Structure formats: structure tokens, C-alpha cells
Amino acid sequence: MLTRRMTGSKLSAEFVLCYILAIERKLFQLFDYQKNKEWHMSETAHCRTLDKVTVGLLGVGEIGGKVAKTCKERGMKVIGLVRSLDTGKNRTPDVDVYLTYEKLPKLLEESDYICCLLPSTQETRNILSGDMLAHCHRKRGVLISIGRGDVVDEESIVKAIRNKWIGGAVLDVFPEEPLHAGSPLWSLPDVYITPHISGWSVAPQFKEEMVDEFVSKFRIYQSGKPLSHIIDWEKGY
């Protein structure tokens, strides 16, 4: 079985950049002020340029690599969390510092945005649950979760927001979908919920790209050449 990567990685990277820019430039506050016909210059003009931002990526596969490139091209510092520091693996130059899983607290402490792209495996399930997000407290980083929903449970995100460990959360994936109507996440401040669409589009452009990608891989398969993006069932992704 193969995975669809090319189209999804571009969309995911733009999704991450979109929310970083929106939060940095106070767009959500500006929308609220507009609704209330309020004019606040000093509060909403307090922003920094992207070259002062550090992004921590949990997972640096194909999607993570695209996110890293998108962030690095705009001057951001990029920290990447990986399973091992095996130098034999391909490593993107767009990541400034690589850390292994046991160094997760360090990544959380140093990142302004924590972008979770991890697959669902025995190693990664609930990796951010419990009090792990307390390590974000110094910078109050914003969690952007677009990988798999079971890397952190709902209660842990709620606790992190209420305790002001994190400055907000952009949540595109959840342990159970759709997110139930009774969840406190819907109404917590600085939490932005999207319906699992960070790497998905039904626009004609992307349908055509998916067909082209399928045809290309099928021809490679017919020729007997090795395929890329094959799922490793032992690893779980």
C-alpha cells in the first residue's frame, strides 16, 4: 500500500504558515474588533517578523520537510524531532537542529509554534498527553496539530490552555472525529478548530494532481522499478 504525499504536503505546509501569520499579525483579534466596530492600534500592531519565530516540528517526513522548507524560506528557525539521529537517513537542510524523542521537552521549551505531524504508532500515541505541554510554559508556544489525533488527548489540551502553558492551539485532528459538541475545546479562548482539512482539498487542481500521481506510480509499478512512499506496517506509517 502506498500513501498520497505530494499534494497533501503542499497544502499542509500552507495551512501551517497561514495560522502562524494569522496569529502573529493578530488577525483573529482584528476580526473581533471589526465586528464590534472597535479601533485598537497599539494592541494589534504589537507583532514580530517571522525571522524572530522558532518552529518545532514533531516529525520530519515528507510533510514535515515541506513545512520546514516553507518556514525556513521565510526566515524562521526550525527544530525537528526525529526517532534517531542516524546520519545515513536523508535530512533536510531546512531544519536547523535535530532532536530525538527523549529531547521533546527541550523542543517544547524553545519553540514559539509546536507543529505536530507525527503518525499514530506505539511510540507516539499520547506523547504530548499528561503534563508534557507544561514544558511550553516559558514561551507559551502555540500547538498546531495536523498529524494524528491520538498524540495528545483532549483533556491535556484543555489543561494546557487553562493553565496558560500554551498560548493557543490550532487543532485539525482529534482522537475521535468529528469533535463532539460537548467538548470545551469549542469555546476555549485562542483555540481554532478545523475539520481535518489541513492536507485535503476537493478543488479540481488537486483531483488532477492525485490522478497524475496515481498514474505515475502505476507506471513505475508496471515497469518493475521500486516504488516510493510504501507503508511500513511494522513502523505504522
Q: What does this molecule look like?
A:
The chain has 237 residues and is of the alpha/beta class. It has 7 helices and 7 strands, in the order αααβαββαββαββα. The protein has a single domain, classed as Rossmann fold. Strands 3-2-1-4-5-6-7 form a 7-stranded parallel sheet, with helices on both faces. Helix 1 packs across helix 4. It is globular, with a radius of gyration of 19 Å. It starts with 5 loop residues before the first helix and ends in a 14-residue tail after the last helix. The model has no long low-confidence stretch (mean pLDDT 93). It holds the Pfam family 2-Hacid_dh_C.
Write the layout of secondary structure elements.
Layout: H1 6-24, H2 27-35, H3 41-44, E1 54-58, H4 62-72, E2 77-82, E3 97-100, H5 104-110, E4 113-116, E5 142-145, H6 154-162, E6 168-171, E7 191-193, H7 204-223
Parallel strand pairs: 1-2, 1-4, 2-3, 4-5, 5-6, 6-7
Helix pairs in contact: 1-4
**CATH superfamily label:** NAD(P)-binding Rossmann-like Domain
The shape is globular
Looking at CATH, which topology would you report?
A: Rossmann fold
> In this structure, how is the largest beta sheet organized?
7 strands, parallel
> Helix coverage percent of residues?
25-40%
Please state roughly what percent of the residues sit in beta strands, choosing from under 5%, 5-15%, 15-25%, 25-35%, 35-45% or over 45%: 5-15%
Under CATH at level 1, the class stands as: Alpha Beta
Distance between the termini: 10 Å
Structural class by secondary-structure content: alpha/beta
Order of helices and strands: HHHEHEEHEEHEEH
The low-pLDDT segments are none
Give the count of helical stretches: 7
Number of DSSP strand runs? 7
Mean pLDDT: 93
Domain D-isomer specific 2-hydroxyacid dehydrogenase NAD-binding: 19-198
Organism: Potamilus streckersoni
GO molecular function, one term: oxidoreductase activity
Protein name: D-isomer specific 2-hydroxyacid dehydrogenase NAD-binding domain-containing protein
